[in-house]
Each structure stands twice: as C-alpha cells, then as structure tokens.
Amino acid sequence: MIVRKTLFTKEIITADELGRACSPITRVAAMVVVRNQFAGQDQDDLSELFEIAGELGPKMSTELVSMLPGPAVSYGKAALVGTAGAMEHGAAVLHPKLGAPVRAAVGGGQALMPSNHKVGAIGDLIDLPLGHKDDPWAFDFIDTMTLSIADAPRADELILCIALSDGARANPRVGSRPPGK
C-alpha cells in the first residue's frame, strides 16, 4: 500500500446556517490518499483493497476520537475513487473491514455506519453521511460532512474518509426522537 498523504479536519459548529446559536458540535474527519492498485484494470477479486481499511482504519479512528472533546455519537465513512478506478473499488475499502475498527474506537456502534462512494476527479467533493452510532432512527443525527482534497484523487488513487461527531445537527427541527426511545 502506498499512502501519499493523510489529512485531518476539525469543525466546531456554534450556530446553524441561519446564524442561530447552538451548543457547540464538533465534527472531525480523516482522509487518506492511497494508490489504487486496480486503477485501469478489470478485476473481480478486490480483496487486496479490503486490507487498506484493515490497516488504516484503526489508526484513523483512534486519532479522530482523540480530536473530539467528548464521546463520539455519530459516525460515517466515504471513498472517492480516481477516474481510472471503479466505484466498486470504493466499496471494497469501505465495507468488509472498516466498520469494526471504527466501532471499537467509538465504544459502540449498533447502527449501520452510513457510507458513500463515487468516482471523481482531482479536487472533487465527497459527501460523507453521518448517522447516530447506536440508533438509526435518531433522525436529528443524520448529517453530512462535505470533504475534498485539492490535489486528490489522481486517476490512479482513492481517498478513504472517516468522520465522527459529538452531537446532532445544529438546531434540528425534524421531529426526531432521542436515541434509544
């Protein structure tokens, strides 16, 4: 595995999009740019891509947990595959081996980890979905972090992304119920 760069981002939200104050919400994301060994190839066995998440997932998750001021309550994952790759390459790095290390780092994770993967060009945006780690019906926690890296992914690369949050959306008004109810 060839890692070209790792990027961490931290957002502290103190008001909603209308400027109404809210309790601080911290959202953190880790993005790792790796070479996609199957770029430009028609490959049925993608199991070698599973190992990217198996190796990087624990490190990324542990670092993200340390960046939050409190416990993580929401999580999500995404992959942006360079133009010589296939969307299935993104699925291969996200699904078989990434959930377990993230769940271990956040101390829970009964709910399915929301995910997104797509093929894109250098600098494209990826919308990483967030959801409550233990209650998929906690609608106030359904959120999105939009991420990008200016010089990635190159055609033969992919970006693996993980995000965590310590709160719901700013001032949610959709009628969600509290987690666990």
Automatic annotation (TrEMBL):
InterPro entries: AA_synth_put (IPR009569), BB2672 (IPR035936). Gene3D superfamilies: BB2672. Pfam families: AA_synth. This is Peptide synthetase.
